[in-house]
C-alpha cells in the first residue's frame, strides 16, 4: 500500500496521515480505539512487527506469523468503553472482515487494552462465534 491509499482502518484518511505514523513509531496511539484501528491496519498491510510491539509484554506471544492467503477487507467498531486519554484501561469491540481464498468471514472480538509506560497496549480479547 502507498501512503496516499485509504487507510485500511476505515477512518477515511490516507494511510500516511492515519495509521502509518503509528506503525513507524512517529507517534503513539492516543486512545484504545486508535490503537485497535492501527493494529488492524498493521495486520492488513502485513506489519506484524507493529502488532507484536503493541501487544502487552505480559500477554503477547513469543512471535507472530502471517496466515497464508488471508486478506483483511474491512473493520467495524461495534463498541468502546473507556480507553480515552487519562484512562488506564479500555475495551474495544470490533468486527473485522477477511477473505481467505474463496471464503469470507468475520472475526468478532471484544479486546481489552491497558496503558503501560504512558502508551496503550493490547492485552487480550474474547472472540465471539
UniProtKB/TrEMBL annotation:
Show where the YchJ-like middle NTF2-like domain sits.
31-125
For this chain, the family text in UniProt reads: Belongs to the UPF0225 family.
Protein name, UniProt field:
UPF0225 protein Y900_018375
**HAMAP family reported in the protein's UniProt record:** UPF0225 (MF_00612)
Q: Which InterPro entries match?
A: NTF2-like_dom_sf, SEC_C_motif, YchJ-like, YchJ-like_M
The organism's superkingdom is given as: Bacteria
Amino acid at each position: 500500500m502507498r501512503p496516499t491509499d485509504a487507510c485500511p482502518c476505515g477512518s477515511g484518511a490516507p494511510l500516511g496521515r492515519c495509521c502509518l505514523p503509528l506503525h513507524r513509531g512517529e507517534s503513539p496511539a492516543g486512545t484504545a480505539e486508535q490503537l485497535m484501528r492501527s493494529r488492524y491496519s498493521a495486520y492488513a498491510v502485513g506489519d506484524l512487527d507493529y502488532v507484536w510491539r503493541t501487544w502487552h509484554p505480559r500477554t503477547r506471544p513469543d512471535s507472530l506469523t502471517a496466515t497464508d492467503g488471508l486478506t483483511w477487507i474491512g473493520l467495524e467498531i461495534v463498541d468502546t468503553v473507556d480507553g480515552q486519554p487519562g484512562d488506564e484501561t479500555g475495551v474495544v469491540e470490533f468486527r473485522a472482515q477477511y477473505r481467505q481464498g474463496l471464503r469470507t468471514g468475520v472475526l468478532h472480538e471484544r479486546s481489552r487494552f491497558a496503558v503501560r509506560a504512558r502508551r496503550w497496549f493490547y492485552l487480550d480479547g474474547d472472540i465471539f462465534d
